[in-house]
Amino acid sequence: MAKAAEIVAERWTLLIIREFLAGSTRFNDLRRGVPLMSPALLSQRLQQPEHEGIIERRPVPSRGTHEYRLTEAGRALAPVVRHLGEWGEQWALGDLDERDLDVTLLMWAMRRRVDPAAFGSRRAVVAFDYTDVPQAKRYWWLVNNGKEVELCPKDPGFEVDLHVTVDLQIMVKIWVGALPLNSALRNGLLELSGMRELQQQFKSWLLLSPFVSAGARKSH
């Protein structure tokens, strides 16, 4: 345990590995997933797991850059990350305060946890209005083309098919399974407007945090 902790227990390391497990391969993707880290700190923190053989850099000649990939040793950490997240969801989450609320981090995590096939093959634009967030970060758009979902912090210029109006704290509680989506809709804490078909499909399109318990998923 002591030798393993020397490698993975340093602050930020497991969060970086979580980002790799979620599909991030590029430096900027990692920055979005761990926004509280400065670029310099992220570069520094990537060095140790690379040195220990947990991640590797691969050149991408077509872009003149490189990307990161987990090695076999890195992929073997998946159950560790999952169980730690599940433990935190059950025992460490507690009451959320303003320090826990980051709209950029939330939207980036949600973007990775939507089912692009739920709306079919057509392009669907879902606009989020966080009513308690400063104007500069109040509006976000997820553009779904049936195969992948793009996150836009600025208006992409497409017609919006579904509007979501909600407080950031409420959305975070829904995301971590602390508040069922059905309950939020029933009590007017989250409002959907737009195409009725997409409103009905919203629950199957927006998946919850991967650490949410099975019971909370059923009530979603």
| Number of separate domains | 2
Provide the gyration radius in Å.
18 Å
> What's the mean pLDDT score?
88
According to CATH, what is the topology of the largest domain? Nonspecific Lipid-transfer Protein, Chain A
Strand content: 15-25%
H and E string: HHHHEEHHHEEEEHHEHH
The helical percent reads 40-55%
Oligomer: single chain
Write the CATH architecture name of the largest domain. Answer: 2-Layer Sandwich
Biggest β-sheet: strands ordered side by side in the sheet? 5-4-3-6-7
Name the shape in a single word.
globular
Q: What distance lies between the first and last C-alpha atoms, to the nearest angstrom?
A: 37 Å
What is the highest CATH level, the class of the largest domain? Alpha Beta
Major β-sheet profile: 5 strands, mixed
Poorly predicted ranges: none
What do we call the CATH homologous superfamily of the largest domain? SCP2 sterol-binding domain
> What is the number of beta strands?
7
Count the DSSP helices.
11
- By secondary-structure content and strand pairing, the structural class works out as alpha+beta
Walk me through the structure.
The protein is of the alpha+beta class. It has two domains: 2-91, Orthogonal Bundle (Arc Repressor Mutant, subunit A); 98-219, Nonspecific Lipid-transfer Protein, Chain A (2-Layer Sandwich). It is built from eleven helices and seven strands. The chain has helices at residues 2-8, 13-21, 27-33, 39-51, 72-75, 78-92, 103-112, 168-175, 181-186, 196-205, 214-219; strands spanning 55-60, 65-70, 124-130, 139-144, 149-152, 162-166, 190-194. A five-stranded mixed beta sheet has the order 5-4-3-6-7. The longest helix has 15 residues, at 78-92. The radius of gyration is 18 Å and the shape is globular. The mean pLDDT is 88.
